Amino acid sequence: MKTIDEITSKDFWAHNLTLKLAIIGVMILLLLIPLNMVEDIIIEREESNAQVDKEMLESWGNQQNISGPILQIPVKYTYEDNDGKIQHLKKWIHIMPEELSVISNIIPETRKRGIFKSTVYTAKINMSGFFKPQLDNYEQESEVLYNEAILSLGITDNRGIKGKINFSVNKTPLQIEPGLICQDLMKNGINAKLNQIDTINNKKIGYDLNFSISGTTSLQFLPVGKQTTTDITSTWNDPKFSGSFLPITRTINDKGFSAHYEITNLNRTFPQQWTGSKYNIFNSSFGVDLYVPNNHYQKSLRSAKYGILFIILTTLIFLFIELYKKKQIHYLQYLLVSLALVLFFSILTALSEHIGFNWAYIVASVAIITLITSYSKLLLNDKQVVYWIGGLITSLYTFLFVLLQLNDYAFLAGNIGLFIILAIIMKVSSKIKLK
After folding, report:
1. Is the separation of the CB atoms in 52 and 113 below 8 Å?
2. Which UniProt keywords apply (predicted)?
3. Contacts for 425-428 with beta carbons within 8 Å, 24 or more apart?
């Protein structure tokens, strides 16, 4: 039987490698606890940001959906009930414009409260076109109350209205009133009574509407015109076109975006005119969201999910160095290196709240790489090996940074990267001969 002095370095690893791998494996599993704590902190910070964001946006104006303008005229039906009494029933005719042209320029703005930021906008909107009511059937069946005709414009949140609204019909300015007289179709907005008129049946009624409105995240319109054309421009370069219709043409670059829509009454789910509230016009809304593809909290959380992979790969680097250089690394030293890797994700989140994600990633990764390589120099006292450790860990952080910048191809790139890493590990491990 061999004594301790007779056991060679190679024999030592043959007898103890399995035990060491088992202990390191348990240590890595235990490190999931601080990793999960870091993820919880990131989620908590993101929720705090969302709460502050909500409070800020409530005072600025919510997501806006501009619906209209719609011409609404009441009709009075007279009938005799079962008891022989004369009754009157009042209904509203909802008339959509023959043409609707919308030109909108969205001006984004970043608002701050402490370290938290929110994206809001002010939109300058011009609407023009004309109505041509066809009311022959209503005139035969009921009394059309032309002198009570109104033009209604639906606005999700009236608090967002900025300054004066210029609303004119046939070049005659109208007096704007808050709220909606008829709420069959919309609940919030503004209205304007037409001038005293005898009839507008089969007459062309031109309109022009100019106003500014503030909102958050999204601006939507409704294709109420028989022919609706809409042009939206902005300096925001991350638009998300949403709703029932997509733009026919669009341009997106570093200077912003522009989008052009053309929609007819055949594309939507409601007719040109009707009475009552039988149709939901909001099913046909369209527009744009000021999309933030990956905020720093989302990126920090995504990076933290790769934490266990970083710990495993870094541990393998040190383990292979032990096998080749025959230099003992204590379990405590493995633990300290792994904790430094966990600390990276916490530092990254804290810095990203102040200097942005990209700069935070650079600063945090440089700090942790410097810490680990300096510690490796003290442990191994071998410059060549330390350079290898620094280079490999730098490659890991670079790979993760590139992965976080990808959106559509992140999953594919991650799998390709992991395949290459596994192939390298297999190649290196094949050179380890233990008997």
Report:
1. yes
2. Membrane, Transmembrane, Transmembrane helix
3. 425/316, 428/320
